[in-house]
Design a protein that fits this description.
single chain, 599 residues, Glutamine Phosphoribosylpyrophosphate, subunit 1, domain 1, Rossmann fold, 35% helix, binds 2-deoxy-2-amino glucitol-6-phosphate
Amino acid sequence: MCGIIGYIGQKQTTPILIDGLKKLEYRGYDSAGICVLDKGSLKVIKKKGKIAELDSELKEHNLSGTIGIAHTRWATHGEPNEKNAHPHLDCSGQIAIVHNGIIENHHGLRQLLVKEGHSIVSDTDSEIVAHLIEKFYNGDLAKATVQALQLIDGAYGLAVMCQAEKKIIVARRGSPLIIGIGDKEMFVASDVPAILAHTKKIIYLSDDELAIITEDNYTIKNLEGKKIDKEIHEIKWSVAELEKKGFKHFMLKEIFEQPEAIANTLRGRINDKEIKLSINFDITKIKRIVITACGTSWHSALIGKYLLEDLALMPTEVDYASEFRYRNPILGPDDLMIVISQSGETADTLAALREAKGKGAKTLGIVNVVGSTITREVDSGIYLHVGPEIGVASTKAFSSQVVALLLLAFYIRQEKGLAIDKKIIKELNNLPEKIKEALSQAEAVKVIAEKFKSSKNFLYLGRGINFPVALEGALKLKEISYIHAEGYPAAEIKHGPIALIDANMPVVFLATKNNLSPKIISNMAEVKARSGIIIAVVNEPDKEIKKLADYIIEVSITSPELSPVVNVIPLQLLAYYIADMKGLDVDKPRNLAKSVTVE
Ligand code: AGP
């Protein structure tokens, strides 16, 4: 989720680029940089940290030029630091690129380029694009860029400039890129907010299209060189609306981003032959797994227990990180500690990790933020690649964590030489579509939210792999609507909580089809017999459920192992709509922080 902006025209480019980067900070940043054609040569200034730090650094350099590109980085490969920040230069220092996306075959291309004498200075996948273009450059930047792109697998939003040509080349596959049309000036960007202050005339590049941009003209072609006419759109939104892509809150945007987020988590890690995870120890030697995390990440850890024991036949324990770190856990070199953390900075989780390392256990992190503290201390890791999660209430990170745990369970099976169910693999690849179907129930969920927004208490009930989903649904509601809610294993209510049931108690059941369905239906009957109000999340609503449930939210049929990722969607939406209807600050709920870096 990096940010890109470029300018070519008659004005000084540096202030335009810096202002544009500031408009893109919401996309997440850990470093930023700028390249300007200054008195005939490319000048690159890069800085770790906030855009403001790059801005003050630039004051030392007094760049002057009317062509430039700039980038705010959300790291996917390589630590957030100056060396890995964009723009990246080729060996000659005469070609500069900024890139958003993931180049899946960057290892092979890096080896090829190094063998040909290129010295690649960063740890990123992106830098190899600059060297590939250099490899083919022979006085025509556009042509060399196309030749480079034809070798690349993966996603890119790319802007390229070179010392010898007064133009910017942009190309796109999988990561958005737009062209802004001005009066004797042109803009390029990854997102409209970066350039909306200068123009409302926008062209959206499509996949496998490339544009050659000069200060007063642009030409758009496909990768075969055929010219393409594109519609010019007039933007109606304000910048504020645009940062959230028209969604009222970041949380809602991130709920609806989940199909794309899950596709990014899966990207390059699964095909019909194998699961590809870069785990740098022999996981078949592990005798037991302990997973520690906090909050929502602890809920995905609980789901991981079901998946790892059921699919990978691996004994698995789950512990709150805050509890694990203070008891005397028995752990050794045959054990694997998995820590799950969206931010990679949660103090309790980090402390639990260090405790496990101190006892000689292998460690693995399932983390979203690249280069965060936890990622630097584990032996191996699985990045979520879902982009920045701005809303305090975690949504896309949760569903991605569950998918990462499923990939890990299949990976362990594969390494143990056990067969992998092709049906589930096919469904895993189709999961983004299933999530989209669940999201299409948003209006039905909104009706239920309207009905129960003033309730004082909720119960969420699930069984098996959906018990942790019940916990997650309850946490979502609690943390953004401030309504008390409790998640429980459905069978457990007869051991106490059923005393709470009355006509004012909405009870949300996770009732999608699985081997425990008859049991869930009898739990529903127990609630109904005490006048409880039943909201059921189902995928094959049988007549029993239809008789018992007061409200039904239908999601798509999927393998039980994947059901948590689909079933959680209506629960996220229910919490969001209730909180929004109560006029609460959904993205920044009271008393909460996005990352709890203190005990
Ligand atoms: C989730 O909605 C909460 N914001 C919170 O429980 C969060 O999951 C927890 O603080 C752990 O954060 P982490 O995943 O960044 O470690």
